[in-house]
Amino acid sequence: MAAPPGNKTNGSKKKLKTFAGLTAAEFQHPHDAAATEALSSVPGLDTVVSKVMELGVERVYYLENTADNVRVTERMLPRLHRYLGWGCRILDVPEPELYVTLNPVPNAYTYGHKSPFIVLTSGLIDLLGDEELSFVIGHELGHIKAGHVLYTVLANNIASIVAAIGQATFGIGSLLGQGLVVALHDWYRKAELTADRAGLLCVQRLEPCLRVFMKLAGGAGRLWPEMDEREFVRQIRAYEEADASVLNRAYKTLLTVRRTHPFPILRAHELDAWHREGYQSLVGPRGLLE
């Protein structure tokens, strides 16, 4: 297998470490673990899960995806396929299907509980460089490795599911379901922090990860050459310092309660902290990706 792109040290290709036998618990963010435990205790979760299975939502989305998007293979978009293969070897996860969809909005997502697949938008591919794309694919593989995909299906369809249950129970189910909506969104945001760690394990350099967050926050293509990573790091520090105010913490809670993803600045801050601590202890004597 060819060496991963962009990972150069002193002019030569850097060999990436693989993590045979890696478990999700080794890189799971503690906020994700706590949110997962809280979510599993929310009343009505079992009902929603059974409704998803009953409606066959997963199969419908898979068929729509294969009909509307381009599947990445060794011969179709081979560069992306190599990134996928490297990520799977590094994280020790079975290779899922990967697709590209025509959409100018930069985005990536993983769908399907039994047969997961990853989708990248054309806008994301246009925005990111090679290592940055490897980080994003590693991030999505992290969702699979950590077993996030079932709850992701629920989070993406929770509004329509709660409405359907509400109609069947004269609105009572909808009222109960609002607590589940909030809990799912809280879990979704915190699961992203775990997946970011998986992405870092795939590129094994912090800089491309931070560049992804910076571009997602405001990376207009024509202005990218003028963006400064050091200024972005200063912005991360300013956001961190704002938490010193109780009022600012309250505002942040209100701003994020309905979001499915954390703010890019928060993601950058959390990954930077893990890179200086847990990541360094995890990346020990492991195999090398040739």
Tell me about this structure.
The chain has a domain at 24-204. It is globular, with a radius of gyration of 19 Å. By secondary structure, it is α+β, with helices and mostly antiparallel strands. The chain starts with 7 loop residues before the first strand and ends with a strand. The strands form 3 sheets. A 4-stranded mixed sheet has the order 4-5-7-6, with helices on both faces. Strands 1-2 form a two-stranded antiparallel sheet. The longest helix is centred in the middle third of the chain and has 32 residues, at 172-203. Helices cover 61% and strands 9% of the residues.
* Class of secondary structure makeup: alpha+beta
Order of SSEs, N→C? EEEHHHEHEEEHHHHHHHHHE
Q: What's the β-strand tally?
A: 8
Order of strands in the sheet with most strands: 4-5-7-6
Assembly type of the chains comes to single chain
Rg on CA atoms, Å: 19 Å
Tell me the major beta sheet. Answer: 4 strands, mixed
Number of helical stretches of at least 4 residues: 13
User: What would the average pLDDT be, to the nearest integer?
Assistant: 80
